[in-house]
Amino acid sequence: MERQVAAAAATATEGRDPPAPSTSTPEAAESEGITAVPVAARPPPASVPPVASGSATPDVAAEKVEQERALAALIKFKKFNPPIFEGEKVEPSMVELWIDSIETLFKDLYTSEKDKVYLATHCLAKAANMWWKRVKRDRPSVLPPMLWKEFKKAMFANYFLDTVKRNLQERFRKLRQGDRSVANYKQEFSHIINCVPKVVRDDRDRADWFLRGLRPKIYRVVQLFKLTTFAEVFNRALWVEHGDAHVREERELIAESRDKGKKRPGGGSGGQSSSKKPPKHPRMQSWSREAQQCIICGGGHRVTQSRQCQGKCYTCRQ
Question: InterPro entries, alphabetically (predicted)?
Answer without folding.
Answer: Retrotrans_gag_dom (IPR005162)
